[in-house]
Amino acid sequence: MVDLNPPMQEYKTSGQQQAEPTSTAAPRFDPRRIYTILVLAPLLYAVIRYLPPLAFSGVVILGGGLALFEFYRLCFGDRGHFWLIGIGLAGFAALILGTHWPGLIVPTLLAILVCTISVPLLSRSPLEQSLRDGAMTLFGVLYLGLTLGMLSMTRLLPQGEWLIFFLLLVTWASDTGAYYVGTLYGRHRLAPTISPKKTFEGLVGGAISAILVAYIARWWFLPGFSGLDCLILGTLLTITGLWGDLTESAMKRSVGIKDSGGILPGHGGMLDRLDSLLFTAPVFYYYVTMASRLRVME
């Protein structure tokens, strides 16, 4: 799934105080970003709008699998471990499919657990390293499988296709608003040691953009949401999306790279494009399901 927000500028940490101005130099425009969007956005729309939920889960497996591969490349570096990557990808796909066939989830988790704790028995790496690699394999499955699985679960809800559109639009609006407001007006750094270009001003701009798009989406195709729902969801998705972005930035910074990959021309890696959704998707799913239950009780 392609992300519409501009790439968040990061790296080159500064020892200056958080309240000092950040650079407001205009980012260089990359036309490949537009080409990627023009190709992928209509395909994604068609899958969500016209194909059954299982087809959408296939797209989640494809995009999430690429992101998981990039995650393992961050963790394993040049050590390879293609068999561990294969185990992780198989477990991830099974978790996503488990949203359609719940009986798959527990056996999948048990199988992945057994495989990962058995790594020291099969690996030639030092014991400490093999244990760490096994733990990271399991973590990757949970990190992307449990979070992106919420996308498939949302698609299975009544009006699921419209809920997915709402989630994607509000998440991307938040990212885009935060980027441009932060670039133009950012002065106070939000997380200087992890992502020095992110600012409190950008956070406010992202929240305003998300709330506005939430109200537009409610008027356009999702009238079942109340005005209060739009206000709460715009705020929640902004905060959780930022949280997801910062956690991925911390992982990338720990290994000294800027982008997780280059599979999406002009957009970086798939993990870069999905980092916000990893956190917004679960929050959105549980808010929608809990809010609907509360309305029934009333």
Concise summary:
With 298 residues, the chain is mainly α. It is built from 11 helices and 2 strands.
Tell me what the structure shows.
With 298 residues, the chain is an all-alpha fold. It has 2 domains: 53-156, no CATH class; 159-298, no CATH class. It has 11 helices and 2 strands. A two-stranded antiparallel ribbon has the order 1-2. Helix 4 runs antiparallel to helix 6 (127-155). It is globular and about 60 Å long. Mean pLDDT is 84; it is low at 1-26.
Span of the ends, CA to CA: 37 Å
Please write the string of helix (H) and strand (E) elements: HHHHHHHEEHHHH
Q: Based on the structure, what is the oligomeric state of the protein chains?
A: single chain
Q: How many β-strand stretches? A: 2
Beta-strand proportion: under 5%
Widest β-sheet, arrangement of strands = 1-2
Report the structural category: mainly alpha
Largest sheet: 2 strands, antiparallel
Low-confidence stretches: 1-26
- What integer is the average pLDDT? 84
- Counted by DSSP, the helix tally is 11
Shape: globular
Number of domains: 2
Q: Please state the CA-atom Rg, rounded to the nearest Å.
A: 20 Å
Helix content: 55-70%
